[in-house]
Amino acid sequence: MAKAKTTKAKAETPKKTSAPKKTVAAKSSALPTLETVSTHVHSVLEKLQVAPALRNDIEWCLGSYRHDHNPAGLLEKLNEAKKILETLKKEKPKAVTAKLISDLQKVTK
User: Fold this and answer.
1) Helix axis angle, 98-108 relative to 34-48, nearest 10°?
2) Which of 12, 32, 2, 48 is closest to 101 using CA atoms?
3) Which of 3, 61, 84, 101 has its CB 3.0 to 4.6 Å from that of 74, i.e. a possible disulfide?
4) What is the mean pLDDT of each run of 10 residues along the chain (109 residues)?
């Protein structure tokens, strides 16, 4: 038996190309989204058991925002929550984190 040529096998293997350069993505904590901040605000208000009417409004506005992507009502309720959370931060500094307040300020601008 004669040996088969190996040139065909070499032709079938794909050439190595340089991998595309990876871009550095922004950290998720650097740019909080409206939805994540509002769910976090809702959970903090629920944990502290304050403003049940506001919690219900935030929950309703969040569902509405998920449906139609209109942030008007949700932003209004988050501004109300920001005032409440800032006063709670003065009374109970460990109950409300500074990151939550700063995320709220970033989102509601």
Assistant:
1) 140
2) 32
3) 61
4) 60 62 52 92 95 96 95 96 95 92 93
Rounded to a whole number of angstroms, the CA Rg of the chain reads: 26
Q: Which two tokens stand for residue 81?
A: 């929550």
| CA dihedral sign of residues 48, 53, 54, 55 | positive
> What is d(CA 88, CA 51) in angstroms, rounded to the nearest whole number?
12
In the Cβ-directed half-sphere of 25, how many Cα atoms lie within 13 Å?
3
Exposed e or buried b for every residue in 72-109, given b needs 16+ CB within 10 A?
eebbebbeebbebbeebbeeeeeebeeebeebbeebbe
